[in-house]
Amino acid sequence: MASATSRWELVAQRADDYETAVAVLLNLLNPEVLRVDGVGGDGGRDALFRDGSTLAIYEMKSFTGRMTPARRTKVERSLARAAQHRPTCWTLVVPIDPNPKELDWFDGLRSRSQFPLSWCGLNWLKAREIEQPAFAHYYLHEGHWTTQEVMRRLADGELVSVADGPAALARVRETVEQLNRIEPHYRFTVTAGPTGESISMEPAYRGAEVDRPTTLSFQASFPDTPAGRDAREAWERFTDFGDPVELTGDHLSRLVLDLPAGLGVHSDPPTPSTLLRLGANQQSGPVILARALIEDADGRRLASLPVDLQVRHRGRRGAVATGTDRTGSLKIVLRLDVQNQTAETSLSMSPVPGLQPHDRLSLLRFARQARAPHRFQLHLNNKAVGPSVPCGEVKNDTISDHVLDEEITLMEDLSEVQRRTSTPFDVPRSISPADVAAIRQAHQLLCGMSVEVPPSLAHWNLARPADLPEAANQLLVVGECLEFAVQEREFSLEIFGQPVPLGTAEVTMPAAQITAVTPAEDGGADIITARPFTSRTRRTVRLLNAEPEST
Predict the structure, then answer these.
(1) Long-range contacts of 405-408, Cβ-Cβ distance < 8 Å, separation of 24 or more
(2) Which of 226, 309, 496, 505 is an S-S bond match for 491, by CB 3.0 to 4.6 Å?
């Protein structure tokens, strides 16, 4: 008895519909699969997947029935064209399960190929149909009409009653689950909050927007009122530069939005509560190398930083570019007006944590100069972009010049410590007083100065030296006073939680009085305990290998 024609065989009667369906299925199985536009020839690649050295090519054939000699020839030609791209594997997707003769023919192709070949036939397609119910519903059951029915049933309350809160939540959940079961191109979520409820959708795979596009048409109308004039200005910024804009129903005379799953809108005219948000026309252009400058009134450069700019959105009149310095701490917005040949720039800065000292130092020096009456300028290709603009006035909540000067000096010291000790530092957003003191002490020591280092000593212990002359040994008794210095081979200070080795040091203990002598056990050295009797209760350290800082 002849078997009934499968749904796949029915779809394959229209080659374009079949290729679209298989491409969507492959995308759902692997979102990174890329469909190749066949206009002008696809080079034997209906779809492909590339990951590093992997190149998988898929060939879709809408053949039904049997693989006749003419059809085999077409497959062989497609395989030959695909082989020119040196794929790592090649897959034929056709709604035919091979019979023994067809399998022998395909095995012959395998034996001559330099890469693996696969045949995904009708049974394979049916298995994927079971695994992807939303896809099957949409492409094999003409389910694109039923998404509107789901939304109608939601509006009419037919899916589930809403007698109480749990029932209402169940109704929403059931609706979203049904939408996700029958719409393969997008994934839906429902959110609710103080500002209201919304259904959002995200593409289920790369290229879903092409397979199921959305369209929008509307007509704006701006009354001659303060709100209307503000809305018109916002609309002009959107059309001129691509800035995001919001239009309410008061500023719209017509709105038609075609969305999947029956979520579209057709309002003529829209209600006053309607809100249309239009985002920026995002661009993915190349990174533009630029330089941010601070100049004095005479145009003399005071500070500069390299920045990376990228055009974010554009309109009919110009474009808006944003950028940062190499650390992400300095942020710049550049509005280019091509029509008037002008540019507006603005900047903000907040050092990110984890910077190296020299990077933070460059930012601090830039911030120190970015104050009135100095001016800000941006250079592209060593040429100024528009006129310079005045730097902002220092406000009460702005870091003072004095504080900036202190941190600049601190970063200068830290950079020198890092250079001399070969110890890299990641500077935190805020620096503790203990770290400030340690940085300054390390810098002073490396420059040949003597410093007192913490902690303050309530008492200190000394193991009786083995090579001490007997006359000196007799003085190490309770009540006697002593002051001595020792060499510490690898003296270090802790900065930002890590020890920083500074080199061999002479450590002088504060003058003290012996308070106890503890006899040694097991032949060890006696322990001498002393308590400082002067106001100086810290060790004094001097590096023996220090070099004065070069000038």
Answers:
(1) 405/368, 407/364, 408/361, 408/364, 408/365, 408/368
(2) 505
The conformational region for residue 65 under phi > 0 = left, psi -120 to 50 = alpha, else beta, is left
Contacts of 66 (CB under 8 A, 6+ apart): 96, 99, 102
CA distance 488 to 508: 10
The sign one gets for the Cα dihedral 427, 428, 430, 435 is: negative
**Residue 440 contacts residue 432 (beta carbons within 8 Å):** no
Closest Cα partner for 247 from 265, 228, 262, 268?
228
β-bridge mates for residue 91, sequence order: 58, 118
Alpha carbons 109 and 105: distance in angstroms, whole number: 7
CA 202/CA 186 separation, integer angstroms = 5
Residue 431 · residue 410 · CB < 8 Å: yes
Asked if 9 and 64 count as a contact pair (C-beta separation under 8 A), the reply is: yes
Q: What is the pLDDT of residue 242?
A: 85
Show the DSSP H helices in 306-348 as ranges. none
Q: What gap in Å lies between CA 512 and CA 532, rounded to an integer?
A: 4
At 226, list the tokens: 């303060």
- Report phi then psi at 313, rounded to 5: -155, 155
Give the integer Cα–Cα distance in Å for 308 and 276: 33
Residue 532, SS3?
A: strand
d(Cα 438, Cα 496) in Å, to the nearest integer? 9
What are the start-end ranges of the E strands in 160-287?
Answer: 186-193, 196-203, 215-220, 245-248, 252-258, 265-267, 275-278
Q: How far apart are CA 514 and CA 327, in angstroms?
A: 55
Six token digits for residue 218 = 């509307």
Residue 57 pairs in a beta bridge with: 48, 90
- Give the pLDDT of residue 4: 62
Find the distance separating the first CA and the last CA of the chain, reported in whole Å: 100
Give me the sheet containing 498-508, strands edge to edge: 451-453, 539-543, 498-508, 485-495
Cβ-contact 376, 370 below 8 angstroms: yes
Q: 85-124 pLDDT, tens per residue?
A: 889 999 999 999 999 999 999 999 999 999 999 999 999 9
pTM (2 d.p.): 0.52
| Both structure tokens of 353 | 């944590």
- The residues facing 266 across adjacent strands are 256
Is the predicted pLDDT of residue 444 greater than 80, yes or no?
A: yes
Rg of the Cα atoms in the chain: 38
Which tokens is 309 given?
């700019």
Give residue 504's region: left, alpha or beta (phi > 0; psi -120 to 50). Answer: beta
